[in-house]
Amino acid sequence: MNREIPDEILKEKNYEVYTTDNFGTPLIQKVAPKLRATTGEEKVVDSLEDVVLKTVEDGMTVSFHHHFREGDYVFNKVMRIIIDHGFKNLTLAPSSLTNVMNDIVVEAIEKGVVTNITSSGMRGSLGDAVSHGALKNPVIFRSHGNRARAIETGAIKIDVAFLGVPNSDAMGNANGMDGATAFGSLGYALMDAQYAQTVVLVTDNIKPYPNTPASIKQTQVDYVVKVDAVGNPDKIGSGATRFTKDPKELKIAKTVNEVITHSEYFKDGFSFQTGSGGAALAVTRFLRQSMIDNQIKASFALGGITKPTIDLLEEGLVDKVMDVQDFDKGAAESMHQNKSQQEIDASWYADPANKGAMVDALDVVILSALEIDTKFNVNVMSGSDGVIRGAIGGHQDAATAKLTIISAPLVRGRIATIVPDVTTAVTPGDSIDVLVTEVGIAINPKRKDLLESLSKVPGVPVYTIEELQQMAQEKVGTPKPLEFNDRVVALIEYRDGSLIDVIKEVKD
Amino acid sequence: MNREIPDEILKEKNYEVYTTDNFGTPLIQKVAPKLRATTGEEKVVDSLEDVVLKTVEDGMTVSFHHHFREGDYVFNKVMRIIIDHGFKNLTLAPSSLTNVMNDIVVEAIEKGVVTNITSSGMRGSLGDAVSHGALKNPVIFRSHGNRARAIETGAIKIDVAFLGVPNSDAMGNANGMDGATAFGSLGYALMDAQYAQTVVLVTDNIKPYPNTPASIKQTQVDYVVKVDAVGNPDKIGSGATRFTKDPKELKIAKTVNEVITHSEYFKDGFSFQTGSGGAALAVTRFLRQSMIDNQIKASFALGGITKPTIDLLEEGLVDKVMDVQDFDKGAAESMHQNKSQQEIDASWYADPANKGAMVDALDVVILSALEIDTKFNVNVMSGSDGVIRGAIGGHQDAATAKLTIISAPLVRGRIATIVPDVTTAVTPGDSIDVLVTEVGIAINPKRKDLLESLSKVPGVPVYTIEELQQMAQEKVGTPKPLEFNDRVVALIEYRDGSLIDVIKEVKD
């Protein structure tokens, strides 16, 4: 990949450098937790503080999930107690960090409470602080599939998982699909429930025993803490699913659909992951019409799920929705009533180190990019100013699909999206097949088959990615090269656990 | 318990002797398999023989489940190949052995193919052969909960699990509830799927990918073998659920119901496990009427499930059915359409070494006995001739309920059921609360509360167990003491992994 990775990082952390997106078929020794057996002891506790004091010790790894997204109350409640009691040297290992968690993590870092973080991503004040060297040790960024791999193989060993749930019975049988703060799939949290030494459920809704369906099971849970509220229902998912009206986004979405429908993968039984956001929803809408017009049905839709994808399921255009998280209320609410909306954990979704994940069978995926370079390497982690403001999510994982499409505008404001070299390499160009912009598409030269099949699509001009990069540069000029200090503030793992890039401290 | 257990067995196998039915709250280090990662490789194979040859080696532990019961074809197909290829020194670790498996296991033992067995039980020609010393090493009998414990802690390390399923997709997503040979819950097999190094699904019904609901997941499966038929639908479960007409059984069932309804546990939200067989079904019917008459509803019914229990669920008399296996077609067929019939694995059902099993919350259980002695110890494993002809099943596990009732006639034919000392101790008297016979009941003296609450139930005379034993003896006389050789042919573990008894070779 030709990224600058300091040797001392590789040695100190015992990392291999990324070489291939083909995981192969290695032997994998999985790990398992050490647990305290119980036989009917009371698990319900009123005081979250008591449970934190009973379970957390200096130096431990504590985890959370981000299924409540910007409506999360649990993370702040727990971290407040942890900070106020002066714990030190904790490792935070959440599935991801949403904006509502930023300020308290910055405070925890400043006070020496948190000295290590592994996450899918971070943004805002936290990304800024870390980029300026606030955290003692480099953050490790991992994709959702890689987090599952790391947990299953012991690279992440969670001592205590604090998992907010919209319902639980007194023994810890819980799901994400019922209750005022329902968020649908518990996909990421299921890893923590299975592998953490100690599992603390936090809920505002204790249900009669036994509570079913039980996505998290009593066999995994040590404590059930009753609190007033676990989240703000209005902020858990975007409420209405807004269809973009931006002409550039619409043009890109339409072109993405042209690429899909003119590829060999668009046939009965195909599968896809479209993701969230206004542009992704537009793709889903165009794709829906093409499926109807061509009498083509999909076998499954994968990934973070939105209401428009559920609509396809209900219309019979998609047989199964394989659901690791839900991005909006419509998707979350449908889960408990639609048998074909299958909850999957992060391992089943995307872990390369098990006996086969859903992403292995994925035909078409549409992904975004903060930057993409002329080697097709994609950055979804840092801004053009070098500051951390993104998340890997399932980007590296889903990019292993047969047809991986990056949808991105040539420029955003005065900043080029297509660049000679990405600021941070997150997903390798090896995995990317087509870049779709508002002016046309570029095809990875490795994919000669696509160069052929997509060369004569009406209204879809094909360029080399260097040409698109030049067009972007002509629009916004050549930016002054970024300057960084030598200190490494974050490590970007590839999904196999190798190191694909590092992020250095920004120079002010 | 005062059972004769040879010291060399304790030393050689590093066993503790059973001391208490209270498991306590020890720290438990769970284990995890080493697996071969795959990313989309083809798993479907036509030749079962090829897969056996690729996966099995001399000395390995191979496992099966018994959910197909007497309709199972998979066990015989796999064992035929194993025997014909001359494998040696295998350990058989099925969830249990049904009669249809007996003859081929005897053959495998005689040919040195199988030298160790761990099972819930065995009967017929196999029990006879083992009792006469055919197997090289002692069989280890474990309850369903103890098997889960042993698998989760590494005492049973399964190299290859051959799991028959009524449906699977090409990647190994499978369930037990759909298809011509549906048997309902995959409860016992879920342990094998999660913990075996290599998992081979055997099916006659390949479904489109992705197959849901997936009780067994593709992340766990190495091979999917397509065969002509996995089982005989007519023999998987007893077809019609027959209500006993035997006056003695009816009398016992009625008395069991009197004991339940006059106990403190019979109140709204109570829970129960009734089991299978004509007498158990009669209990369920009497209990149903009492629930209606007293306007009492149960929170859950547990265990092996029958259609009459599903009827209670559908009538609203039971909120949830927690289902580790289904004994008949009615129960099996209802699973995929009734959300309140929750599939549970053997660990969730009954493992004492996790963070809480369903049996911990069980109020009332009705269990059977081949023999029960004046210390309330129960034998469900060997006949009065000393020959193995039974299974622990969930007996030890469910006996930890708050009210454990043994229902048994005083005598069967010319053989006493109530004896001074059981031939084989399986479930300790510590766990047993009430014995119900056709002439009256006996209450464990430890349960002074029950002596009080059940002393004045109309039509239910209370005796000491010694009195009942005397009545049985008066009916059939005193049998000649059994004679055994010194050699130990089977070990009876308690559910915590301690040794509760041994079975010695019968003397002819």
Automatic annotation (TrEMBL), chains A, B:
GO terms for biological process: acetyl-CoA metabolic process. It is found in: Cytoplasm. It catalyses: citrate + acetyl-CoA = (3S)-citryl-CoA + acetate; citrate = oxaloacetate + acetate. GO terms for molecular function: citrate (pro-3S)-lyase activity; citrate CoA-transferase activity. SUPFAM superfamilies: NagB/RpiA/CoA transferase-like. GO terms for cellular component: ATP-independent citrate lyase complex; cytoplasm. Keywords: Cytoplasm, Lyase, Transferase. The keyword Ribonucleoprotein does not apply. Pfam families: CitF (PF04223). Its main location: cytoplasm. Gene3D superfamilies: Glutaconate Coenzyme A-transferase. Its EC number is 2.8.3.10, 4.1.3.6. It comes from the Bacteria. This is Citrate lyase alpha chain.
